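step=encode ok
step=design start
structure_in=
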């Protein structure tokens, strides 16, 4: 019985990888006051770029670098529109999501119309001596592929950075009261742009999971709404890295449970497997409407010298 539980939790951690990275992307952006519903598009664009570079170079690690770069570039576009030009952040994020769908679909047809050439590969499982051989903890945390273990490590890194460093203090201050932050010498615009780009890098890692760690191919719309589920996890986790991780694990469990049951010989309809995460997303979002406390200045453009915007 213990083996089944450990296997279920281990699969949950794997399935939650893109959700964790997407949620961390949202936390970094929205804690500084910038709404980021473009995570879905950033992940989709990064998934394609990582796959294409991995195929043509034969190196999945170069693919990861390309995915992170693509996520950062799309995030920079979101930052320029929403922070520098004060475009509505929802509209900016929506436009990037649409752009990513169109661009990846077009490029996929142009480059891989006859199927992916040889060279596509996924990242090899990471072998960690000693830790990987620990009972229970080894299979849970230290016997996965690199991006899965990196996602877990980044939860701790981002949490410490957000609540124990000067950068984190300034990020939270800008997200709560940008005018007050500005009066003590914090460059609100630069900090917000930097955070949005950092969020894009994290979303890019989440996108790399799909084509460089899960399966060695790309399909149109293969992120399948994971960016939006990551946003729900971020809200469920109250805009904290640890809370978002816990929520992402819950979503991952809804995907892992049917898989584990099928392995154990229980017949589970695949329609139910695909539906569970989205049903849970609706339940979570509906249950938190009006109760989740977002950063006070989220979604509000800040223009230096205009008190009303602070």
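sequence_out=
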């Amino acid at each position: 019985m213990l083996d089944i539980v450990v296997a279920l939790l281990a699969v949950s951690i794997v399935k939650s990888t893109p959700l964790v990275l997407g949620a961390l992307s949202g936390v970094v952006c929205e804690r500084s006051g910038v709404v980021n519903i473009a995570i879905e598009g950033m992940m989709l664009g990064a998934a394609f770029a990582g796959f294409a570079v991995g195929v043509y170079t034969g190196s999945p690690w170069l693919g990861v670098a390309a995915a992170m770069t693509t996520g950062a570039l799309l995030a920079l576009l979101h930052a320029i529109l929403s922070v520098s030009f004060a475009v509505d952040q929802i509209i900016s994020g929506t436009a990037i999501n649409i752009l990513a769908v169109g661009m990846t679909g077009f490029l996929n047809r142009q480059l891989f119309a006859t199927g992916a050439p040889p060279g596509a590969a996924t990242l090899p499982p990471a072998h960690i001596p000693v830790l990987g051989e620990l009972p229970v903890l080894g299979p849970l945390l230290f016997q996965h592929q690199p991006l899965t273990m990196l996602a877990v490590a980044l939860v701790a890194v981002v949490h410490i950075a957000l609540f124990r460093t000067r950068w984190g203090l300034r990020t939270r201050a800008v997200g709560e009261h940008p005018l007050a932050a500005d009066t003590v010498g914090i460059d609100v615009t630069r900090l917000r742009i930097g955070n949005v780009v950092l969020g894009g890098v994290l979303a890019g890692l989440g996108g790399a999971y799909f084509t460089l760690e899960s399966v060695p191919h790309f399909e149109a719309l293969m992120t399948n709404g994971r960016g939006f589920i990551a946003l729900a996890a971020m809200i469920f986790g109250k805009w904290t890295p640890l809370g978002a991780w816990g929520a992402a694990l819950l979503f991952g469990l809804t995907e892992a449970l049917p898989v584990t049951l099928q392995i154990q010989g229980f017949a589970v309809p695949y329609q139910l497997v695909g539906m569970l995460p989205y049903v849970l997303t609706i339940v979570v979002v509906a249950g938190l409407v009006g109760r989740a406390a977002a950063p006070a200045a989220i979604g509000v453009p800040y223009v230096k010298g205009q008190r009303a915007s602070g």
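step=design ok
step=annotate ok -> DSSP finds 13 helices and no strands in the chain.
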